[in-house]
Every structure is written in C-alpha cells, then in structure tokens.
Design brief:
With 344 residues, the chain is α/β, with parallel strands linked by helices. The protein has two domains: 129 residues, Rossmann fold; 186 residues, Methylesterase CheB, C-terminal domain (Rossmann fold, 3-Layer(aba) Sandwich), CATH 3.40.50. Helices cover 38% and strands 21% of the residues. The protein is built from eleven helices and 14 strands. It has a seven-stranded parallel sheet with strand order 8-9-7-6-12-13-14, with helices on both faces. Strands 2-1-3-4-5 form a five-stranded parallel sheet, with helices on both faces. Strands 10-11 form a two-stranded antiparallel ribbon. Helix 9 links the parallel strand 12 and strand 13. The longest helix is centred in the middle third of the chain and has 20 residues. It is elongated and about 60 Å long.
Length: 344
C-alpha cells in the first residue's frame, strides 16, 4: 500500500485528489494538509511514502518547503501546478530541487477530463513510490559560459536525447557539460505545451549551447539544441547534406505527444550512422524501439543506468531489447559523448 499525504491550500483540490487516489486499491491517502507547517507535523506523525505538493500556498510557498524537505528528509514529491508561465517556471524549479514529477491542477466539473486526470495522477504516484530520491546537494557554481559565432556548415552528426520522469534535470546535466560548438542536438522531453518554452529557456540559461523550443523547418546548426514543443512531435528530416526540424500534431505514440520514438525513428531514417541517441530516465517504454532503430541504422546508442535514473522505465526497456550499446551513469554520458567526438 502506498501512503500519500496531500498538501494544498484548497479544500476542494484536497478533496478531489483524495477521491481520485482512493479509487485505486494500492493507494491510501493517509492525510491532508492546508499548508507546509501542518504538513511538517503530519509527515512526522504519518510517515507517508509520497507527497503531492501545491506550489502557491499561504505562510510558506511550496518551493521553500520542498527545498527544506529535500535537504532534511528527502521524500518522493509530485508537484501540483497551474498551467501558467509562472506555474511552469515554478514547477521546473521544483524539479531542480528534487521533485519527482508533476501534474497540472485538476479541472473541476469535466467528467471525462477528470477520469484521464485520475489515471495520470495514480500512475505518477505509483512511479514516485518506486523512484530514487536523494538528498539535494548544493549546485556547483558555474563560471559563466562562452558562445562562439559559428558558421553554418554541412551537418555531419546529430545528437538526439529523449527523457520523461526526472528528465528535465537529467537533460540539463548533460547539456551543461557539452561545449558551445557541439553538434546539433534535438530533444524530446514529455512535457505539457505550456511548459516546453520555459523548459527550453532554463536549459539555455545553463548551457554553453544555444537552446530554444523547436520551430518547423529550422536548419540544424552546430552549437544549437532544439526542444520539442509540448503537444507536437519533433522529427529530423534531411535535404541534401543538411538536416531540418519538422513538427507535426500526429496521433500520440506510446500515449505521448511529443514522443521520443517519433524523434528517434526520424533520426534513424535521416541520419543513419551520423547520429548518437541517448535515452534518459523516464516512466514507460517510449523511445526504446526508436533507439533500437537508430542502432540498427548504424548510430551510436546510449541509455542511462538504473542507479542514476529517477525511474528506469524507458532506458530499462531499451536495455531489455538490446537497443543501447552502452549503459552509463548520468554523470558519464556527456564525458563519453565528448570522447567519442574527439575520436571521430
């Protein structure tokens, strides 16, 4: 039984989340709290397995509480966020602080939407209960970043990265270790449409590369990374010696749009052996078949190892079907990519 504590200043949201979670026999809502001060006492008394945490609350905001919690008593936390630019920034900051995943605020009164929302919430609570949570360490200071004025040149290699649960931070860790003249990088992270631009901007702020949300028809350039917009599939297509982005709103694949499989399959078709694929932490299996297609097309393929993954679903699925040539801890992926590049 997974014991859940709900923290939200809205009595209606607390009641709604309680009812949705109570529909699953493997989950027990052991308590609720209207603010972090009450939550702190209930955590001590009830010893929950998973918390859901609102961002904006009276007396102490959710981010301050999360920061303290991850330093003093790390627990799996799912953020409950509003679909606004401010909510997106706060949620991505929560991922930096150690939250496992997030859901958006429930839309009260829409029966079909609530059913799908309940399924998503239950799935993420169960994944969080199995996730690896670590005490937060102080980030190492960065000494600034250098960006080079790069000429447009014939594209000779493309790096494709896919991730889901835990991926916002995993992708940031990889990108911030890559040089400003890195080969073009395309990224699919499972994320809502309202969050993807904020995610790209946060990556841009911490990376020596230029990172932006992808637009349709962009030429891939060295020193640039392109993030799939939420609710659109990102693909790579080739024209002559150059590669371009292509966006579409095709059907979800593996229940996701954007889908990592869609990206990886397109890279396999367009780039063949002139590509590297890296599948990072995430729930489910999206990206595993695409990574296999990349390997079969001659690309170098990597998967994050189980120990450093928040959830070893997607990379684990890739390892199971022999899609990954190398299985590496997260902190070794960027250094390995740099060694491969130098060797080439």
């Amino acid at each position: 039984m997974i014991r859940v504590l709900l923290i939200d200043d809205s009595a209606l949201v607390r009641q709604l989340l309680s009812e949705l979670l109570a529909s699953d026999p493997e989950i027990e809502v052991v308590g609720t709290a209207p603010d972090p001060y009450v939550a702190r006492q209930k955590i001590k008394a009830l010893n929950p397995d998973v918390l859901t945490l609102d961002v904006e609350m009276p007396r102490m905001d959710g981010l301050t509480f999360l920061d303290n919690l991850m330093r003093l008593r790390p627990l799996p936390v799912i953020m409950v966020s509003s679909l606004t630019a401010r909510g997106a920034d706060a949620t991505l900051r929560a991922m930096e602080l150690g939250a496992i995943d997030f859901v958006t605020k429930p839309q009260v009164g829409v029966a079909e939407g609530l059913k799908a929302y309940g399924e998503e919430l239950i799935t993420k609570v169960k994944a969080a209960a199995r996730a690896r949570v670590r005490a937060r360490e102080a980030p190492s200071p960065r000494t600034g970043r250098e960006r080079l004025a790069l000429e447009i040149r014939t594209t000779d290699q493309v790096l494709a990265i896919g991730a889901s649960t835990g991926g916002t931070e995993a992708i940031r860790e990889v990108l911030e270790c890559l040089p400003p003249d890195c080969p073009p990088t395309v990224i699919t992270q499972h994320i809502p449409a309202q969050f993807s631009d904020s995610f790209a901007r946060r990556l841009d702020a911490s990376s020596a590369m230029s990172v932006a949300e992808a637009r349709d028809g962009l030429q891939l350039r060295h020193g640039h990374a392109y993030v799939a917009p939420g609710d659109q599939h990102l693909e790579v297509v080739r024209s002559g010696a150059l590669y371009y982005t292509r966006l579409n709103r095709g059907e979800p694949v593996n229940r996701h749009r954007p889908s990592v499989d869609v990206l990886f399959n397109s890279v396999a078709r367009a780039c063949g052996r002139n590509a590297v694929g890296a599948l990072l932490t995430g729930m489910g299996k999206d990206g595993a078949e695409g990574l296999l297609a990349m390997r079969q097309a001659g690309a170098l393929t990597l998967a994050q190892d189980e120990k450093t993954s928040v959830v070893w679903g997607m990379p684990g699925a890739a390892v199971k079907i022999d899609a990954a040539q190398h299985v590496l801890p997260l902190n070794q992926i960027a250094p390995y990519l740099l060694r491969v590049r130098k060797a080439a």
